[in-house]
Amino acid sequence: SYSHIEGSGKCYGYYLTKIKGNTNDKSITASIAYLELTYNDGNGLISANNIIPGENITTKTFSVENTGNKKVVNYVVYLEDVINTFEDKNDLKLTLNCTSSINNSCGEINTIYPDKDTLLVLNDIEVGEIQTYELKVDFIETYDDQSDNMNKIIEGNIVIKDIKDIKETVSGTDNVM
Predict the structure, then answer these.
(1) For the purposes of burial, counting CB atoms within 10 Å of the CB of 103, is it exposed (0-12), middle (13-18) or buried (19 or more)?
(2) Could you give the CA distance from residue 77 to residue 122 in angstroms, rounded to a whole number?
(3) Coil, strand, or helix at residue 51?
(4) For the sheet containing 130-139, what is the strand order?
(5) Measured between alpha carbons, how far is residue 108 from residues 33, 44, 58, 134, 138 in Å?
(6) Strand ranges for 23-165 from DSSP E
(7) Which of 69, 101, 135, 167 is 20 to 30 A from 146, alpha carbon to alpha carbon?
């Protein structure tokens, strides 16, 4: 359950928000030659249960390594199979930080959790380079009535793709690293 003190009285709310992942984990295979995608927990699924405002929904750490003999240009970190039924979309914050084994930082984004499949990162990677990503999704506490987000669902699957495999237009996006 969830409680906080507001003024001289107490307010109680019980949140049954459901966050679950796609059970068909197809996130291990990369569609670009020479790139290896590794997840710290075995998959790229975003999932949690019974979260309340102010909690971290998930933290995923994954890395992309160029195991080939030439630079890979314009690979994409993509969030697919997305479902977001939250009423207040701004209550879900997605943060993605990237660090590189050869040049330290390779980008950072802060955005709301999308309600459709979304390109998160467009990056290049040098031969032998490892880029490590930490993705966090948080349910923000607004101290307002957030009961309209009870029994709502978010889903997503983190994959890497070639930019040519993405149908959406890349120009003008705020999320490109």
Answers:
(1) exposed
(2) 7
(3) strand
(4) 35-39, 56-66, 130-139, 92-100, 104-112
(5) 25, 18, 17, 10, 16
(6) 35-39, 48-51, 56-66, 72-84, 92-100, 104-112, 118-125, 130-139, 153-162
(7) 135
